[in-house]
Design goal:
alpha/beta; two-stranded antiparallel ribbon; 19 helices; single chain; about 700 residues
Length: about 700
């Protein structure tokens, strides 16, 4: 028993006098303890001392239980994965094959050729390994003489090693070194962007509005005149989201006589056209200045739609235009937070707001997209906006000065990235851009891998198309040399061309090849340490997603095949680079939106609706809509998950290379190839996004 406070002085005076006492317990479950002084019991004791056989057994049982639990989890995961593979690959239940153009099949055939060659080499390597042909040093070669055929195979294998070392390894090593250099350059660029973002946060740099222009008590702001603002909502067959986007835009806080809303409907489905017309008519009866517009000749996709709308005579008095895609829901104060930045800033052409996502936690795919887009807005757009006054327009949630659009040539239909096209041309004409990181517009990210893949293909093929078209104009423009260098070297080449090239070539082609050609080496720091560090930097703007750093790294490498294919098709103007497929939406609304909708419905029940004079054409449209709703819509098209051949072929290639790495005892390479191969397998089986039961 420890001494109390009264006896502490006596206890402290006690020295080690007397004879040491040895206490021995006869019970074998207890240990022998030797006490040679009064404070010996309070000394540090070795951890291993005092453990008996029974305690040691319990520790082993506990660790065994943990190991069995871990193995059980892994086994259940693998069993579920094998069951899914059986259903989707062998039985073909609930899946469809990806539709590929003839140009897209070329890359698949190349990957398939690599896979067949790798399997042949793997079989040969395994045969040599089990026959004891240790071939890495010529002195250790053991030539068997038992069977003539075995000696012939051994000589053939030895000749293959010499040919491999002299003719195959050098070009692979050269391409590998080139990709490593590009990888380091891109990593340095990303690190500099992150440092720039940290500097902005540290200095609290952000665009400011002078005073409060909407505060009537402010002497300077009391005379603020609201400019004429045009709001455009381009859409095409957006049945799931049209209602919430039109509703959000119609509730923007801006004088009604200074605001015009254009709903630019390019839908080719008459039933959807009637639904959108009915929604526009509903808000029109509530004194909202809103117009429905449908093109008879639908050319140029979104760019043609916007260009056609800007040619209307009634938009000429308007000074600014705000653009929202059909799935965007701006807050009521959106224009009050963006339009005042144009005041006393005649060189400002664009104010871009940030996106926020209502469905970012829906599944693993949406979480990984949130990481990418948070880095894009928080780091790339903000840094480029602060230090260069230039960034790529995101196509939505932005306000343009109409004069800047007109001076830059307006909307052009030459590429599938009309937003980046107009931004580059405006930058070349001297217009400046502002990015507002604290102003956000709610939207959706694709929930299915099919929709996400098509979106990424358009986003990565379009910039290469634009680069070919804009390069002469960039070189001959009057902007400074540094801005030209930033535009050509960083904006286009490094971030749009080099990134998908080295990512696909290095991690999906060169790395598996080095397993079969060990003379061409790829350092471990290229495979593991630098990518992990870069992924950590990319995930910092979304700190809640840090647990997903490993899936993020693997998924980015998996998407490299789509981005590389898109980059090549855009650079060489192949057929698929001109495809525009509207990204499928789920029509999800946030909790505040649902509450606001419920509040509006309750108000509508308590108060009679406000009706204006209704024309005969509007009455006929309402009658058509009612007839269509009574007759019933078309049966929905059956949805199904798909199989992606390129991703599956790469999965088997990487898993084959992982098996080969076991023969060389390359630990880091094996684990990376294994998990990267499983990542490709999950994506190829369409297991990462929305699952259709």
């Amino acid at each position: 028993m420890a001494p109390n406070a009264k006896n502490s002085s006596w206890w402290g005076k006690d020295t080690r006098k007397g004879t040491p006492v040895v206490v021995t317990m006869e019970n074998p479950n207890f240990s022998v303890v030797e006490i040679d002084g009064p404070d010996a019991a309070f000394r540090a004791v070795d951890k291993d001392r005092g453990k008996n056989a029974k305690q040691f057994t319990w520790v082993l049982l506990l660790k065994a239980h943990q190991a069995v639990g871990c193995l059980s989890w892994i086994g259940n995961f693998l069993w579920a994965l094998l069951g899914t593979i059986k259903k989707r690959l062998i039985l073909g239940q609930g899946v469809g094959m990806e539709n590929e153009k003839s140009k897209g099949k070329l890359l698949f055939r190349v990957i398939l050729g690599f896979l067949v060659t790798a399997l042949a080499f793997l079989g040969f390597e395994v045969f040599a390994h089990f026959n004891g042909w240790h071939y890495f040093q010529n002195d250790n070669l053991h030539i068997p003489q038992t069977w003539e055929i075995q000696g012939w195979l051994h000589n053939l294998y030895f000749g293959w090693l010499g040919f491999r070392a002299d003719y195959i390894a050098p070009p692979i090593q050269s391409v590998s070194n080139l990709c490593v250099v590009l990888f380091l350059i891109q990593s340095a660029d990303r690190l500099i962007l992150c440092l720039g973002c940290f500097w902005i946060k540290y200095k609290k740099i952000k665009p400011q509005i002078q005073g409060d222009p909407f505060n009537s008590e402010d002497l300077e702001g009391s005379g603020y005149e609201y400019p004429m603002v045009l709001v455009q909502i381009p859409m095409c067959n957006e049945k799931e989201v049209y209602e919430q986007s039109i509703s959000a835009v119609c509730q923007i806080d801006w004088p009604k006589d200074r605001l015009l809303i254009q709903v630019l409907d390019d839908s080719d489905d008459e039933s959807i056209q009637l639904l959108i017309k009915g929604e526009v008519l509903k808000w029109s009866q509530k004194s909202i200045n809103i117009i429905y517009r449908h093109r008879l000749v639908r050319t140029g996709y979104k760019a043609g739609n916007l260009k056609s709308a800007m040619s209307c005579d009634y938009v000429k008095p308007y000074e600014f235009v705000a653009i929202f895609d059909a799935d965007f829901q701006p807050n009521p104060d959106f224009l009050k937070l963006t339009v005042p930045h144009f005041k006393d800033n005649p060189e400002l052409g664009l104010v871009q707001a940030r996106w926020s996502f209502v469905n970012k936690d829906e599944n693993l795919l949406t979480r990984l997209q949130n990481i990418n887009l948070c880095f894009h807005f928080e780091v790339e757009q903000q840094v480029n906006g602060v230090f260069f006054n230039f960034f790529g327009f995101n196509g939505t949630a932005g306000v343009w000065r109409i004069k800047a659009l007109e001076d830059s040539g307006g909307w052009l239909e030459r590429t599938t990235v009309e937003d980046m096209d107009i931004a580059v041309r405006a930058h070349l004409n001297g217009w400046k851009f502002i990015f507002l990181n604290d102003v956000r517009a709610l939207c959706e990210v694709p929930e299915s891998y099919e929709a996400y893949k098509k979106q990424q293909h358009r986003w990565h093929s379009g910039p290469m198309q634009l680069f070919r078209l804009c390069l002469p104009a960039i070189i001959t423009s009057k902007i400074s040399f540094w801005k030209k260098s930033n535009l050509i070297l960083l904006f286009f080449l490094l971030r749009k061309l080099i990134l998908p090239f080295y990512s696909f070539t290095l991690f999906c082609i060169i790395l598996p090849l080095t397993m079969f050609v060990p003379e061409a080496e790829l350092p471990s720091w290229v495979i593991c340490y630098v990518p992990v560090f870069m992924s950590f930097l990319s995930i910092l703007p979304a700190p809640k997603s840090i647990p997903f750093i490993a899936p993020y790294l693997l998924f980015e490498n998996t998407m490299s095949v789509t981005k590389f294919n898109a980059m090549v098709s855009g650079l060489f103007q192949l057929g698929s680079s001109y495809e525009w497929i509207v990204t499928k939406k789920a029509g999800r609304a946030s909790e505040p939106d649902l509450l606001a909708a419920e509040e509006r419905e309750s108000k509508a029940m308590n108060h009679p609706p406000l009706h204006r004079g209704v024309s005969e054409s509007e009455i006929s449209e309402l009658n058509k809509l009612k007839e269509h709703q009574e007759s019933g819509a078309k049966p929905p098209v059956k949805k199904m998950n798909k199989l992606y051949k390129k991703e599956l072929a790469l999965a088997f290639l990487l898993l084959t290379a992982a098996l080969r790495s076991l023969l060389s005892a390359q630990g880091v390479h094996f684990y990376f190839l294994l998990f990267q191969g499983l990542s490709f397998l999950l994506v190829g089986l369409d297991l990462i996004g929305e699952q259709v039961s």
